[in-house]
Every structure is written in C-alpha cells, then in structure tokens.
Amino acid sequence: MPALHLYHRMRRGLVVSLAAVLLAFTGLVAFGGISHAAAQAPCDIYAAGGTPCVAAHSTTRALFASYNGPLYQVQRASDSALQNIGVLSAGGVADAAAQDAFCAGTTCTITRLYDQSGGGNTLVYQGPGGTGGADTAATATTEALTVGGQKAYALYINPGNSYWANGSGVPTGSSPEGEYMVTSGTHVNKGCCFDYGNTETDHKADGNGAMDAINFSTECWFGGCSGTGPWVQADLENGLFAGGSSAWNPGQVSETGHFVTAMLKNNGTTQLALRGANAQSGSLTKLYDGALPSGYDPMHKQGAIILGSGGDCCQTNHNASAGTFYEGAMVKGYPSDATDAAVQANIAAAGYTAGAPSTAFTPGAKLSLRATTSCCTNDYLQHDSSDDKVVVAPVTSGSTAAAKADATWIVRPGLADSNCVSFESADTSGSYLRHYAFQLHLQPNNGTSQFAADATFCPQPGNSGTGYSLQSFNYPTKYIRHYDFTGYIASNGGSNAWDSASLWAQDTTWLAAAPWS
C-alpha cells in the first residue's frame, strides 16, 4: 500500500468541503461583480398594491427602484468623522467600498439608518450623541455579506445597541399597518426584545396595543413554546404573540436560516397575520392569520419606530437583545397576500449570500484548498503522487516542492457550465479534479460531456458558516468532502460511509488559501 494511503487509513475519518459564492439570477451576476438597478423593489411593490411604504430602512440595498440617496451613516473612532454610505447606482446595492475606504485603519459604528421613503423616519441610535439614552451604536463591520454579487454590511445588533425614530406619517391608533424585515436566524437570543416596527413615542410601556412591531428571537414570553426558535412573533406591548392569544400557536415554525424574511400585518381592529420565509428562496409560510388577541382590539399605536429593542428602552436602561437587520419597511394599510408574496419573491431575487464576494475563484487564479475540520487544519486537498486519487494531507513550508505542487490548483471556467468552476492541476497540465463513483480523482480531460460534468463544481458559502463549499454540478445535493482523508462528493446523510452526517458541514467546508506552488 502506498505510504500516503497508509497514513490516511491510520487517521480518523472526517469530512471537508470547499465552497464559493456563486449566484446567478436575472439582472445580477455574483462572480462578475456587476450591479444593476432593480426594475422594481419592495416599496414599489407595496405601492402598486395600494399600501405605500411610510418608512424604509436598509444597510444593504435600495428599497425603491429609483432611490439614489444615502442608506446609512457611519462614524469612525479615530477622529469621530461621519460619512454617509449610499448605493452603487439608483435602485442598487450599498457602496460598501466607500465604507471600507472611510473606515480603513480604524473602527466604525452605524449611527443612522436613513428613511428611503422620504417621510423623514431616519433611525438614530439610542445613546449619547444619538437620540439620547443608554445604548450605543452598532459596529459597522461585524458582518460582511453579498447582495446581488456585491459586498454589503449588515446592521449587527448586540445587547446594548438599538435605534429609534419619533415617527412621521406612521399609522397610529387602530389604523391598519404592515411591516417586514430581513433578519438572521443565526444571530439571536432570548433577551427583550429584538423588534422592528411601531412603538411608543415616550419610551415607556404604555399598555396593550401601544406597539405593533415584528419580534424575532428565541424569547418564549407566555411559556409553552414548541421548539427552540427563533420565531417570527408580534410585539404588541405587554407580550410577544406567536398567534392570536397567549397560548402557543401550533402553526409557528422555527426560522433558523442565515437569512429570514419576517412579516407582520395588523388591521388594527380585528385581524393579525404573521409570515416567515427563507429570504434566499421559496415562498412565505403562513404562521398565523386570524383574530387579534383579546384586549388588543382595537390597537392603540403611537407611531414611533423601534429597531433592536423593546418599546420601553433605552433612556435609562440597556437593550438586552441580539439580532441582525438587513432591510425592512413599514406600510400604510393592510397588504394583500399577493403583495406579500411579490415582496418575498423580490427579496429572494436580491441574492442574499453569506460572506463577502470571493475573488479566489477567478478563472486563471491559483489556490490551495485547506480543510477546516478541527483535526485537519493543516491538511490540503491534493492529488496522490502514487496514483490518480485525490486526498487531504498536511503541507507546510518545509514540504517538498512536489508536495506543494500536488496541493495547488488552477481555477478554470467550469467545463460543463462557465458559471461554475473546474480545477486543473498546477503540476499536471490538462488533468482535472473530477469525481467517479463519487470518489475524487485527478484525470486528463478526455473531452466528453460526462467528464465535463464530473469535473465541474459550483462554489457556495461554506456549509459550516465559514469559507466555501463546492457543490457537484451533476449531483447538486453532494459537495466535495474529505472522509478518512480521501476526497469524495458526499450528501448530508446517505447509504455510503462518506455520506455520514457526522461532521458533514465541517468536512465539506474549505478555505481558499494562497497557492503552495
């Protein structure tokens, strides 16, 4: 048995995968870094449905197709200077490069979220130098992401961060209202209260119905909850409602994805509805649609706007909640289900993707692919010098030139689909990484369509939440994985040993490292 294979057999079986940020949809190209103005944005859809936006906030993109103003304001720590961050083009994605340039060499916080509706409902942090109070502004660079192929930043709220506006033109009393936000199921807690929506003007808990805000958290206010959340709930003051009463709503669903659409609509007198969805794809789930809770009909909304805290925060106390905000809007009137569905479709088409855009997979670039599972962080995907099998094994600065070359790949446009990639060996010209019987091999390109498909992989955000994972072009449920230190394409659970669900996410996640050769 070759020494390298013997070494693999002696080590514990594990899995690694490699991924990249590839997204293709109408009008937006992920790897090309092209930004196009939207033909229609959420607030255009709401307006067409007769429920116009009265407030619209985002750190990631314009919520009107014609909007060409600032999205948010950052302040840098080095000299307290302020900078507005706008869009790359009308209706487009945030100009993250402007933030990067302004904040280079120092830290920045997000001090304002501008109201894109023209209603003047700009959110300001609830702390000294903001709207007053005890909280601070959120750090501006905690989460970078990709929207429509472009880099953007989230408003990443930790306990002690929150935002507020006194409100102008926002529905009050029992007037009907709708709201949505795009948030994250990966950054939540049970602290009170990660809200976005209608709140009190006096920062006090003023009784049932004084608030009408979306809550997204793991907080189980009345007890009896099923599952661990997070859930889309309604903060109506004096309670977070999963449905139309203090009893647990069995229609609720935990929304655990990285990007989540959360919707609330309330006609103010008789009806409340909650919706949730994966913000990257798919349709809305009807979580609740029925009567308002007893004691909340009619509503008594006051018309201020909160983001990141409850209504009785944060003049003399601190916000206790954690959550992520990408975009959201409040509308006048009760949106139709068709309007809600169209807004969700627009959000899904926006191309939210975890992580900043990668240039690692630019055709012609060289790279090495490093495993991320804790056992194997010095191991790289490489071809075995004794046969055509592809394995993972250590490479260090002291390794031989041959070992370094075996672990170096040249990125090529996908042989079966140029939107994906193929990997040519840096030291064996014309030979490519391909799968055969689900195992990875290095073989010469024979020019067949079968070889092209087997040698094409579509980079995706890392399955473990970092790095990249490489999806098989012709077996899209399978990703490049290391198992027993041998390379495979593997699904998350299945009949083959290498499909084991144990450590699958880690074993299918890779870092695009500098090339060894």
Tell me about this structure:
It is a single chain. With 517 residues, the chain is mainly beta. It folds into 2 domains: 3-20 and 360-513, Trefoil (Trefoil (Acidic Fibroblast Growth Factor, subunit A)); 24-352, Jelly Rolls, CATH 2.60.120. Helices cover 10% and strands 33% of the residues. The chain contains 7 helices and 36 strands. Strands 4, 5, 6, 7, 8, 12, 14, 15, 16, 17 and 21 form an 11-stranded antiparallel sheet that branches. A 6-stranded antiparallel sheet has the order 3-23-13-18-19-20, covered by helices on one side. α2 (42-48) packs antiparallel against α4. The chain starts with a helix and ends with a strand. Mean pLDDT is 90; it is low at 1-37.
Features:
2 domains, mainly beta, 517 residues, 33% strand, Trefoil (Acidic Fibroblast Growth Factor, subunit A), Jelly Rolls, 11-stranded antiparallel sheet, single chain, 6-stranded antiparallel sheet, 7 helices, disordered N terminus
Question: How do you describe this structure in short?
Answer:
With 517 residues, the chain is mainly beta.
Query: Rg, please?
Result: 25 Å
- Principal-axis shape: elongated
Structural class of the secondary elements? mainly beta
**What is the number of strand segments?**
36
Q: What is the CATH class of the largest domain?
A: Mainly Beta
Main β-sheet: number of strands, strand sense, barrel status?
A: 11 strands, antiparallel
